[in-house]
Amino acid sequence: MNGEAEHGTPRAVGIVWGLLVLNTLGSAGAKTIVPLPRSLIQLVTMGSLVAAFALALALNPRLRIRPSAYVLLLTLLLVTSVIASVNLESGFGALFRCFRLALFVSTLWLLSRWWDGGLTFVRHHIRMYFAVLGSVAAGLAVSPGAALPDLYGGRLVGALWPLTPPQIGQYAAVITGLAVLLLLGRRTDRASAAVVIVPSLVLLALTHTRTATLGLLLGLVLAIGSLFLTSAAARRFFAWAVLCAAVAAVGFASALQAWFLRGQSQENFSSLTGRAKVWDALLAAPRTTAQEWFGVGLGDKSFGGLPIDNSWLAVYNEQGLIGVGLVAAILVVLGGVALLRPPSLRRACAIFLISYCAIASYTEAGLGDASPYLLHLAVAVSLLAAPAPAPAASPAPAHATALTTPDAPRRRVPRWARRPEVP
User: Fold this and answer.
1) What is d(CA 50, CA 272) in angstroms, rounded to the nearest whole number?
2) Where does residue 261 rank: exposed (0-12), middle (13-18), buried (19+ CB within 10 A)?
3) 8 A C-beta contact, residue 320 and residue 294
4) Cα–Cα distance for residue pair 70/375, rounded to 1 Å
5) How high is the pLDDT of residue 278?
6) Which has the closest alpha carbon to 22: 140, 171, 159?
7) Nearest Cα to Cα of residue 65 among 351, 388, 336, 324
8) Cβ 268 vs Cβ 210: under 8 Å
9) Looking at residue 388, what DSSP letter applies?
10) Residue 302 φ/ψ, nearest 5 degrees
11) Could you write out the DSSP letters of every residue in 245-301?
């Protein structure tokens, strides 16, 4: 997407961000067209994180960082994770995940130098996840059967890289919302925005991901609402969106209901596709005092072999009540800072990202470990950061001023043109 120049930010910062995105794609998902060993995928994702940290360190060798409550809270969450993981209740994999989280947080600290309230990281975010969605679209074109398998109920998956429907839906929803806001703020043209929005919405619809859809809609409502009093474009968009939603609700009610239910029974839908049973079992499990406060250590976000699919319960299980408090503090602090900022496009983008992560946390895990959700929040932090003060120019010495600014030469007037003195 076209846009303003990224003053003061090296182009290699975009490469670092892309490597972080690659690391958070994960290694579990659907079967791909060309079978990829999980060990190879893990090597690529972990290698990308090491490369991101090394490149960020090369770009910031003097370790210049900006104060950030967000990264500070993540650092405290890392300390809590290490304390919980040293008991090895979750195995040696917990310590490895702590090492991964340490590299992830350290890279964010190094990148904080360039968090200046601009749209630089928003554009990096859109480009990287649009590239990921491009691989999904390519897999769909090459092998529709592999991209829409019966194992996932015909929902879209990654056929070239193992991506699950919720992952694809999340990426599509986030970049769609950001592209819409950039268009409303006139930071991109309609053609560039359409290139991102249209295919992303098509992929989102093919994933049948309810969480991503609700997060996109509610996040845009809150973000555009923050611009309602200051932007005529936001008011027009909101009016047209309400009108289109009303027409769709009346004319396509049955189709929308079928898409939303995904062929599930009422019992399965009310239990959130079986999630509620896992949540009840997790909360009913006995715990020691140490496990209650610090958790059992970083794991694979599962309980009893089933995915937890809830950020708050996953954090409670792995990092205890202290971890839950830190994650809550992250959202409260970012939300409070966003509300205190004056209305602007940057504030609207930050509100969208924060609200999306808060909504998705109910049925998706990821706020307590290196994940795309932490990257979304990092972009929000970069938008809410105060611009770095420009270095003040030192005043020129007096003698230099005298030398560089000579007296203007006097204009010579001929004698005949001089006025005679009045006696």
Assistant:
1) 37
2) middle
3) yes
4) 11
5) 92
6) 171
7) 388
8) no
9) P
10) -130, 165
11) HHHHHHHSHHHHHHHHHTT--HHHHHTTTTHHHHHHHHHHS---HHHHHH-S---SS
Does pTM surpass 0.85?
yes
Strand, helix or coil for residue 303: strand
Rg for the chain, CA atoms, rounded? 27
Coil, helix or strand for 405? coil
**DSSP 3-state assignment of 88?**
coil
Q: Which two tokens stand for residue 234?
A: 């936001």
Cα–Cα distance for residue pair 162/33, rounded to 1 Å: 10
DSSP string, 5-26: --TT--THHHHHHHHHHHHTT-
Report the alpha-carbon distance of residue 63 to residue 59 in Å, rounded: 9
- Cα angle vertex 97, ends 91, 102, to 5°? 140
CB 133 within 8 A of CB 168: yes
CB neighbour burial string for 99-130, b if at least 16 within 10 angstroms, e if fewer: ebbbbbbbbbbbbbbbbbbbbbbbbbbbbbbb
Q: In which residue ranges of the chain is pLDDT below 50?
A: 2-5, 394, 396, 398-407, 416-417, 419-423
Instruction: Report whether 115 contacts 171 (CB < 8 A).
Output: no
**Element of type H or E holding 409:** none
For residues 318 and 89, is the Cβ–Cβ distance under 8 A? no
pLDDT at 388: 65
What does 158-219 look like in DSSP terms, one character per residue?
-SSS---HHHHHHHHHHHHHHHHHHHHTTSS-HHHHHHHHHHHHHHHHHHT-HHHHHHHHHH
**Vertex 106 angle, CA 105 and 110, to 5°:** 115
Which one-letter DSSP state was computed for residue 275? H
Burial of residue 334 (number of CB atoms within 10 Å: 0-12, 13-18, 19+) = buried
